[in-house]
Design brief:
- This protein is of the alpha/beta class.
- The protein has two domains: about 325 residues, Alpha-Beta Barrel (TIM Barrel), CATH 3.20.20; about 130 residues, no CATH class.
- Helices cover about 25% and strands about 25% of the residues.
- The protein is built from eleven helices and 19 strands.
- Strands 1, 2, 3, 4, 5, 6, 7, 8 and 11 form a nine-stranded mixed beta sheet that branches. The chain has a four-stranded antiparallel beta sheet with strand order 16-13-12-19, with helices on one face. Strands 15-14-17-18 form a four-stranded antiparallel beta sheet, with no helix packed on it.
- Strand 14 and strand 15 form a beta hairpin.
- Helix 2 crosses helix 3.
- The radius of gyration is 23 Å and the shape is globular.
- It starts with a helix and ends with a helix.
- The structure holds 2-acetamido-2-deoxy-beta-D-glucopyranose (2 copies).
- The site of one 2-acetamido-2-deoxy-beta-D-glucopyranose has 3 residues, from loops.
Length: about 475
Amino acid sequence: MHPSRFLLATTALLATCVQNVHSAVVFAHYMLGNINADHVAQDIRDAKLAGIDGFSLNIGDPSQPFVLPVVTSLFAAAQAAGTFHLHISMDLYASGDAAGGHPGLYNALLKQFMGHPNYFHMNAAPYVTTFSDGGLQNTEWFNWKVSIGTMYFCPNFDNTTGYTTGADGWWDYWGPIVDCVFSWDAAWPVRPGPGNQGSASQGSDEIDVAVMTAATKRGKAYNMPLSTLQYKDSYGTNIYRPGDLTLVKRMENILRLQPQFVTIISWNDGPESHYIGNIWPEQNTDAEPARYVSAGRRWNHSGLRPLIKDFILAYAAGLPYTGSASLPALGPASVEGAMWYRTVTAQSTCPPSTHPDNAAAGGEVVNWAIVVGTGFTDVSVRVTSGPSSTTFAISGPGFHYASVQKNPGQQKIEVLSKGAVIGLGQGGRCVSALCPDGIYNMNDVVVGIGSPIVAPPVIACDDRPIHCQSAYVRWKALLKSWNAFS
Ligand SMILES: *[C@@H]1O[C@H](CO)[C@@H](O)[C@H](O)[C@H]1NC(C)=O
Ligand SMILES: *[C@@H]1O[C@H](CO)[C@@H](O)[C@H](O)[C@H]1NC(C)=O
């Protein structure tokens, strides 16, 4: 027997003897960029406030000159914050190696930081994850692990044959190398087309169930991804995966499945639109993503964080999911939540070449989710989208969500108790049937729900309502709807 085969077989035997402890740890995926030290510290403070336990530091090419200083300032800020932990996520796909990347490129960085008091450890071993398997064989991964020493390895190998169904063959081949597995694409619904991966529908968990069942059977842990949407129109890619209620449905499914780890994708990936954290101007100065993400208020997704905090507290408590009441609000007199929507509509007059692949996926909807404190009775939610309002009666305290037909114009959400407004969300960008950004911009506008006293003012729509449009634009829209019928 080849020595590394022998080692593989021995670790396989040992691994089945190790029990997993209930951990419930939430990471947020953090794109390492040239972010200054003040902003790095702000990111850690904000993430901690949202209940996040640590960042999974996505590092592409580790030889970039900014990597070492930024990782150093992240660890310093984590230490200053006290309990915040970091670990390295080797982005082999972006690591710049022509063969698809090799984990050996990260050895120096790992050796420098794995012993840091704020490096995340599981079962007393430093936690390491990946984006992609790098196209390597199991023996290559095994030999690399041996070269590093003890680690808790929870890679994202979801692009390998048999992974998403939890196949025995997958576990025979990869099982001895992993302590835990992490699915990435399961966070979003699959895009049509050969080779594409993802869940069957918004927020559904069939991949997670299959993989987690197979992992649990072998004494291994599972890291379940949680994300809002994926919209990327830059770097030669233009794709869309909703979106809409994906985030909240996966929250419920995580509470049902109770995986050992959750990774929020992402804290700050601007170009993919699924950030919930800060987008700092120094991190990315490329013109393409700036069309749909910028440091300004318009594309600020921080309104989702109080809802995410409620979710994390419920998940950390490890209670079985029993419906809306298993996600309590921060206090009896508290209402957390948000409304989110795309500002383009199916009628928007954007150049067809700017429509992402899968642009028709998802609904023409305004989505909302709230968590209501136990102190409120007779609660309802009123969503006003353009000229029409829809009212939802809420069955009781806890977690509720829905979506409603979207119309061009202003968007507003009110939470009422006995007819009085207790929560208000407004001031987000208008929905438009024109094309204010010049591209079919499918990033979400997120409007947090807060006290009506501190809600931001309504801002004027930055294009004209439909009845004021020129005869030409109306004629074009009419032509488009005719074409749709022919
Ligand atoms: C997934 O696998 C295919 C086929 O081996 C490869 O072309 C692609 O680059 C891989 N993607 C990632 C993210 O690893
Ligand atoms: C995003 O919104 C939050 C909450 O209102 C605010 O604290 C933060 O400064 C905003 N960020 C930007 C870049 O506007």
